[in-house]
Write a structure and sequence with these properties.
With about 150 residues, the protein is α+β, with helices and mostly antiparallel strands. The chain has a four-stranded antiparallel sheet. Helix 2 packs across helix 3.
Length: about 150
């Protein structure tokens, strides 16, 4: 059971600043929030230790790298016990960028990025649907991603 960690307004301000620009210097945040750089450093380290902050990442524009097709695929497995082995095989597919274990119509819901519809077809036929644990799939092609944000601290 996950227990929410309590944070205060300064922690929220620091998180918002880092989520906007993870490279913002602690000294700049300190001036903005009227505290010392050491205070910002201590707060960030505490949020790392409590796993509120789990890392930093570079976000790339997939379109500029030639990934023109984003889709979501609902996957039905033959049996619930197939989840772990199916997940291991899905993790080997570079086109799979996210995976979720879900309730409802599908056992697993994945996000794929491909260069073209032809590549998507190849992935579906020759990589995804040949996974022995996969009973069936349903593909939804994304037309655009108008909202893409992190949770609000």
């Amino acid at each position: 059971m996950n227990i929410a960690v309590r944070i205060d307004d300064l922690d929220r301000d620091i998180l918002n600043a880092l989520m906007t620009d993870a490279r913002v210097p602690y000294a700049e945040m300190a001036k903005r929030f009227n505290v010392s750089p050491a205070t910002v450093h201590v707060r960030v380290e505490k949020m790392r230790a409590s796993q509120i902050i789990t890392g930093t990442e570079v976000i790339v524009n997939p379109k500029l790298l030639g990934y023109d097709v984003c889709c979501f695929i609902g996957i039905n497995l033959y049996a619930a016990r197939d989840y772990h082995s199916a997940l291991e095989k899905l993790n080997q597919l570079n086109e799979v960028v996210e995976a979720y274990y879900t309730t409802g119509a599908y056992n697993i819901f994945v996000k794929l990025m491909c260069h073209s519809i032809e590549e998507l077809q190849h992935v579906l036929i020759n990589k995804l649907q040949v996974i022995e644990e996969v009973q069936s799939t349903e593909t939804l092609i994304s037309l655009q991603n108008p909202i893409n944000r992190n949770v609000k601290p």
